[in-house]
UniProtKB/TrEMBL annotation:
GO cellular component, one term: cytosol
InterPro entries linked to this entry: Ecd
Protein name stated in the entry: Ecdysoneless cell cycle regulator
GO BP field: fibroblast proliferation; positive regulation of transcription by RNA polymerase II; regulation of G1/S transition of mitotic cell cycle
Length: 662
């Protein structure tokens, strides 16, 4: 039996798979070579976005994965994004763009939560689609989100399996019927809204701050800005054993500290700022008083220096000697270098190519800064990638950017730091001159989130847009409390099963609606007769009922009504009726006398309980419960928000005054 793709089990990790269609049967070795060439082309074409990106934990990567069971050979990658969820959505954008640039590729992506793309578009999903049957249905193809539908009845559509499809079946369906499996516009819009703004959005996620750092770290970050992520993570996840290396610093001495500007992601900056840490007295890192104007820069530099020292302490003292054995003498690599020289590659942007300590070093100079990459540490298949890209007509910048990106995958952060320290020139006087002309810091007020800003973020996340801002007073004046009673009635009339209760949706929803809207119920552009739609469980039950069962159901309902009538008679003689607001209390007597005759007891002559105003009692009780929450989360607000009702703030109660009794 063919296997299906298993759910990612590592926490905070995203997995992505790229399949080639049509998946014609071919020689496994030939197929492997084709997929590896695709990997090289993809990583080179997107290196200009991937190489400078500061990843929280692990970068985007692709590798060949052989076929197993019913899953064909494909390209596979896994990235641990940790606390920065934006890394995951940036990868979604990259995967989407890959399938757009390479139409013959189909991609699927998931994390430890499963189909998180469906979670993002939960407001617009069809009713039949749930975690139990969503396996192998969600893909990217031609840069668009696709959902393979399920047939309304088994065998209704010949090309759709009755059970969740296998990978091979899904690829065949996408290849044969690409126009019929396109997700609805609302679902695609929900996903596109989440990745809107890339790649320009990357700059908005960065934060620049001044840090008082040792000169060695300044030089390393000048050539490898992305190493700041590894240093922050090393400090953020430190343990007592790791801190032993920071009692006395051996690599980054505090005496060489200078002021510099460091670029973080906002997630990394928040992690570093919010940590409270007192350095060991023996380390030499002493902070000025908190009132000092540069206290924040000294504190950030101290924490970052500890992170870099921890990274370097994890490397063995003779790591560079073991790396020298990786020096390759491949004739292909030598011919690639010779071709670069013959075509004057070293005269346009490339300064020199020389041997240093048994290593090849690539110097890439561009405008004001340059980057250094140890070519001798790159595996031979990465060097083949450079050769392939050069012969395929890529520009020198694309070749070198991919080369630099792959170099980061060949070494650990600590090894890369120590390698850079051994090879790059360290001119402290030049760095001190740059200290006088540092760019200004970014404002970090975004760390403090006000309640109004939080509400705005929640509204944006829910896709709610307001053309004009409305004042609180206007909201209170225009608010209609009938929305509360109408939404509750709609909720009660819905079906509830062991999987939960359905939430109402309609025109009265003024906030976040968790259920699909009527005009967005079907996510698949397919005939309603052939595919599952939003049939309620009531309809399904009625179809299966025979006349005898239907008569029995009517008898049960009649008995239930009689029981309720007897209960009303018993409650009429108790004081419980006084706890409800009745129509007799809120309507004129002339309007209630006529109604009372219809509610008389069946021949007993006893007084009857006045009809209860259900709507008024419902609204008053919910408002009382909502008010008792004092603005905190609670059952009333959760229930109302799940039904799409957003109550205005309660401004009637004043803590300084109490109502007086006459």
């Amino acid at each position: 039996m063919e296997e299906t793709m298993k759910l990612a089990t590592v926490e905070d990790t995203v997995e992505y798979h790229l399949f080639l269609i049509p998946d014609d049967s071919r020689d496994p070795e030939e197929h492997k070579e084709i997929l590896q060439k695709y990997i090289e082309r993809i990583m080179t074409q997107f290196a200009h976005m991937l190489a400078p990106y500061i990843w929280q934990n692990q970068p985007f990567n692709l590798k060949y994965k052989p076929g197993k069971g019913g899953v064909p050979a494909h390209m596979f990658g896994m990235t641990k994004f940790g606390d920065n969820i934006e890394d995951e959505w940036f990868i979604v954008y990259i995967i989407k763009q890959i399938t757009k640039e390479f139409p013959e590729l189909v991609a699927r992506i998931e994390d430890n939560d499963g189909e998180f793309l469906l979670i993002e578009a939960a407001d617009f999903l069809p009713k039949w689609l749930d975690p139990d049957n969503s396996t192998n249905r969600v893909f990217f193809h031609h840069g668009e989100l696709c959902i393979i539908p399920a047939p309304r009845k088994p065998g209704a559509v010949s090309w759709l399996p009755a059970t969740p499809p296998t990978i091979s079946q899904a690829l065949n369906i996408i290849s044969t019927y690409p126009e019929k499996i396109l997700a609805s516009e609302s679902i695609r819009a929900a996903v596109n809204r989440r990745i809107r703004g890339y790649p320009e959005k990357i700059q908005a996620s960065l934060h620049r701050a001044h840090c008082f750092l040792p000169a060695g770290i300044v030089a390393v970050l000048k050539h490898r800005p992305r190493l700041v992520a590894a240093a922050v993570q090393a400090f953020y996840l430190r343990d007592p054993i790791a801190l032993r290396s920071c009692r006395i610093f051996k690599t980054f001495l505090p005496e060489t500290r200078i002021m510099t500007s460091v670029t973080f992601t906002k997630c990394l900056y928040a992690q570093l700022v919010q940590q409270r840490f007192v350095p060991d007295r023996r380390s030499g890192y002493r902070l000025p008083p908190p009132s000092h104007p540069q206290y924040r820069a000294h504190e950030l530099g101290m924490k970052l220096a500890h992170g870099f020292e921890i990274l370097c302490s994890k490397c063995g003292p003779h790591f560079s000697d073991s790396k020298k054995s990786l020096l390759t003498t491949s004739p292909l690599w030598a011919s690639f270098l010779e071709s670069l020289k013959k075509n004057d590659y070293f005269k346009v942007g490339l300064q020199c190519f020389f041997v240093f300590g048994g290593f090849f070093w690539f110097y890439y100079l561009e405008t004001e800064s340059h980057s250094v990459t140890p070519a001798g540490l790159i595996p031979s298949r990465f060097k083949m990638l450079c050769l392939y890209n050069y012969s395929s007509g890529f520009s020198y910048k694309e070749v070198i950017m991919s080369f630099i990106f792959y170099s980061s995958l060949a070494m650990s952060p600590g090894e890369e730091i120590l390698t850079l320290l051994q090879t790059i020139p360290l001119d402290i006087e030049e760095l001190k001159k740059e200290e006088a002309n540092l760019p200004p810091e970014d404002d970090d007020q975004w760390l403090d989130l006000s309640p109004d800003q939080l509400d705005q973020l929640l509204q944006e996340a829910a896709g709610k847009k307001e053309s004009e801002p409305i004042s609180k007073e206007e909201k209170e004046q225009n608010y209609d409390l009938t929305q509360v009673s109408e939404s509750m009635k709609a909720f009660i009339s819905k079906v509830s099963t062991h999987k939960g209760a359905e939430l109402p949706s309609g025109s009265f929803c003024v906030g976040v609606c968790l259920g699909p809207r009527p005009h967005e119920s079907d996510s698949d552009d397919l005939d309603e007769e052939d595919f599952e739609c939003l049939d309620s469980d009531d309809d399904l039950d009625l179809e299966m009922q025979d006349p005898g069962k239907e008569a029995s159901l009517k008898g049960t309902l009649h008995n239930l009504k009689s029981y309720m009538a007897q209960m009303d008679q018993e409650l009429a003689h108790t004081s419980i009726g006084k706890s409800f607001t009745t129509r007799k209390q809120v309507e004129p007597v002339s309007q209630t006398t006529n109604n009372s005759s219809d509610e008389e007891d069946s021949g007993t002559g006893e007084s009857v309980m006045a009809p209860v105003d259900v709507d008024l009692n419902l609204v008053s009780n919910i408002l009382e419960s909502y008010s008792s929450q004092a603005g905190l989360p609670g059952p009333a607000s959760n229930l109302l928000q799940s039904m799409g009702v957003q109550l205005p703030d309660n401004t009637d109660h004043r803590p300084t005054s109490k109502p007086t009794k006459d």
